Amino acid sequence: MGSKFSKIAAWYNKHIKHEREPAIKLIDPVFHHHKIKTYGIELRDPELPLEDRATAALYIGLLTYTGGVNAALLASEYIQDMINILLMPDTSGEVRTYVLKGLCGICYLSYLNQNEAKDRHLMEILLAYLDEDENPEDDDPLDIITMKLWVCYLMTVVCCNNIPYLRLFNEVGGQKLRKSLESLSKLEWFSWPQNYAKLMLALLAYQEQIKESLTGRAKKSSLQ
């Protein structure tokens, strides 16, 4: 038995022990940021299939979500690229869902990125997505419904600690947005931590209460 171990040890020392993986050339000295930039290159590569670019957007979001404030600041550079994909005509529900997931990670608890996305007209895109036909001829209905569920979640993300954004959804979306959310709130939200369509409706109702309260105070002060 001892001779067998000796032979194995000798083979290991000869063939494996001194082998080294080639060093990874980092784009950024912070490895987390290196990965974001690497996926950013893929996201911006027009020669790649759109599915691969959307997957890169998803990974950027995941890395941002786990990478902290500096990662969120770096990822803000790619918000416009993600918006550009969302604006492309005839893009599948699956591709758009990947990009929406990426934006969720980028905007999560980042007030700056939430506002950056708002300036890039994300709100108008989300409202348009909610208004889409759920039984399209050229796409899987399940993909469209899944996409709309992620729209609801992204809405709650960008409105987190961001009252101006919530107010904008309330004013621009109006009753049409409420009807869309009410319809989606009746769906099964299995595997989700909660029903984000219901949560968004609650946030809109809260904003409406604030608006009515301020209006009432203004009327009282004008009468005094």
From TrEMBL:
Source domain of life: Eukaryota
Pfam family for this entry, one: ARMH2
SUPFAM superfamilies listed in its UniProt record: ARM repeat (SSF48371)
Name of this protein: Armadillo like helical domain containing 2
